[in-house]
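re: that complex we talked abt at group meeting.

here r the seqs, copy pasted straight from the sheet so there may be weird spacing, ignore it
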Amino acid sequence: MARLSTDEAAALVERFRRQLRERRLPVTRQRLAIAEGLCRAEDHPSVEELSRRLRAKGERVGMATVYRTLDALVAAGLAREHDFGDGFKRYEPLSREVAGHEHLRCVRCGRVIEFVNDRLERALRLTADEHGFVYHHHRIEIHGLCRQCRGTDLGGLAARVP
Amino acid sequence: MARLSTDEAAALVERFRRQLRERRLPVTRQRLAIAEGLCRAEDHPSVEELSRRLRAKGERVGMATVYRTLDALVAAGLAREHDFGDGFKRYEPLSREVAGHEHLRCVRCGRVIEFVNDRLERALRLTADEHGFVYHHHRIEIHGLCRQCRGTDLGGLAARVP
DNA sequence: TTACGTGCAAAGGCTTTGCAGTCGG
DNA sequence: CCGACTGCAAAGCCTTTGCACGTAA
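got the structure back, here u go
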């Protein structure tokens, strides 16, 4: 969930550090910087964006390392990967304390906000079961025009054939 | 919806043809072939796959044209675009007669099956509204292991840190 | 010291674009 | 005939990979 408390963020980084140590893998400055950068995020940054923020803080980290570390965080269950159809992936920290949540995205400005609806989630698990599937995960996104953008939009999204 | 009846498929192609004529745009052999190829599909083909099927039928159509025509079909509201996270987009014909539907995808073999749940859809519209969004569209996907694949899987998807 | 990580640049995979030739209306 | 389309190849974007060097343990 974006916007972790300071404690949650610290705990998440600590878990990452522990996982690395347990596996006898080097805990590098870069890995910690990336994990911390992600945990501090209040939104769902892309690799590019996260990289930019680290650079702004004076951290020198190559893009490839950001990609590799985010993959590791996702594999470790400490981060979540999203593709909202912007043409690139976005990431968010995944705290144990915080329940699963879904996303509402503005088609105009790209703003993403979160919401929780347990009933929805239960319904999806049930549906998977009804069709003989073993549930793994799901994806729910609502795309629309946010409050700030609705005034601006004048129907420019009408269907058109090139 | 994949698996359109012959009538629905013909109607969809006819609507495409009409839209083109109305806009004084050329109705080309390629465009019709692509529209028909998509309407005949029983699944959710990628550009690559659709292209391959056309070629198999003896239709010579360049990839760029397939991309451009699918964009046109989507913009015209006659097709739907999906990104199930395979690294490429997939398309399906969108018939007026058929209700909206969601997708259930096998994480192992990629098979996609469809289901309808009006209650879910209403809940999403309501949620958008509650957050001050003007609803545009949504996305619901369930990822799991299908009946055929569940026997094969032995937990090889466990989290791991590289 | 040694195995793994890092950074850079090159390579990949899908999609878009530029342009000369072609064709529908 | 004219404007739009097509096909090819080149370019674009995001992401992954190869490799020499650096560094945590």
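couple things i noticed - Confidence is low (pLDDT under 50) at residues 153-162 of chain A. Strands of chain A lie at 79-82, 90-93, 102-106, 112-115, 134-145.
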